[in-house]
Amino acid sequence: MSIPPRRIVLALAIIVAGGVLRLPFEQARTRDLQQRGILEPPLSASLRDELGQSFFIAVLGGFRSVVASLVELKTIRPWQERQWGLVDEYYAICNKLQPREWHYWDLRAWHAGFNAADNYQYESVRSPAVKTMKSRQAFVKAIGLIEEGLRYNPKVYQLYERLRLLHTSELNPEPDFLAASRACEMGATCPGAPPYLRRFAAYHLADVPGRELEAWRRLMDLYRSEDPMDRSPSVGLRLAVLEPTVTKLDPSAMLPVEIAPHAVRMRAIWKANREKAQMQRVQIGSPVQGGH
To answer: Mind listing the pLDDT tens digit for each residue in 191-223?
Structure first.
């Protein structure tokens, strides 16, 4: 018994119409699953050329993590040979394959920032101006990588910690202590975050001109905390260093009685350490903006 053509056309029309109506819902569902980390983002068209046919077939077969690990192993030789561009290319592939594996972002930024910038300082063929420019570019790139990684891994405190280090490194010609403080604040809210991130948020805020009084209040809250870890020696040191500035802004501000007798000596130690850090920054063409 044959089916009338009209019914076939009607059935096809219903199927097509149903597919068109479902498409927005399916797309929204796919985006939601990707944002929640349940579904990996789609592969880019350029990835096949970057991986080669064998690796690309393995990825299509569901072996993304395995292929990413193998690609990471390929970074060892160029790392040893200081071929930072090639190292970055390999880690870029790892990021495309496993964007929610935070350590690929972390290591890529480490190589792009610290390793590359440090290497530029020892290249005798470069002028001081070029070294400073290359170091600045290296840190801008590394910071951008961590920020991109945080879009995929917003609850990973290790990435915020790396961001803090990048913003405050002696190798960074343009340190940003306010950004470092904010990175610590965000990292402290992540699961498993170490308590010291709260303290470092206050430390770095103390290095920001105009934010000394706010930093003082945070440090005093830490010092008065019942948690002995919050009353670390560094908290007392920071309070001693801030006191001369803060008392001009708020005459009622007073150091804790345990710190006051040692404040002058503590400030002398701080000054010596800051001068040492300043010498390191001057070597790469940037004055110190504050100790850390």
So the answer is: 999 999 999 999 999 999 999 999 999 999 999
Measured between alpha carbons, how far is 164 from 104 in angstroms, rounded to an integer?
17
CA–CA gap between residue 289 and residue 235 (Å, rounded)? 20
- The pair of three-digit structure tokens given for residue 212, joined into one six-digit string: 């000394």
Gap between the Cα atoms of 28 and 242, Å rounded: 52
Give me the mean pLDDT over the 251-280 stretch. 88
State mean pLDDT over 70-80: 92
**Spans of all domains in the chain:** 47-98, 100-207+264-292
**Higher-scoring residue by pLDDT: 34, 193:** 193
DSSP string, the chain: -PPPHHHHHHHHHHHHHHHHHHHHHHHHHHHHHHHTTSSPPPPPTTHHHHH-HHHHHHHHTT-HHHHHHHHHHTTHHHHHTT-HHHHHHHHHHHHHH-TT-HHHHHHHHHIIIIIHHHHHHT-TTS-HHHHHHHHHHHHHHHHHHHHHHHHH-TT-HHHHHHHHHHHH-TT-SS--HHHHHHHHHHHHTSTT--THHHHHHHHHHHTSTT-HHHHHHHHHHHHT-S-TTTT-HHHHHHHHHHHHHHHHH-TT----TTTGGGHHHHHHHHHHHHHHHHHHHHTTT-------
Q: Number of C-alpha atoms within 13 angstroms, CB side, residue 82?
A: 10
pLDDT in tens, 15-27: 666 556 665 654 4
What is this structure's pTM?
0.77
**Stronger pLDDT, 238 or 53, i.e. the higher one:** 238
Lowest mean pLDDT among 3-17, 83-97, 124-138, 175-189: 3-17
Residue 119 confidence (pLDDT): 87
Please identify which residue in the block is written with the tokens 């610290």: 114
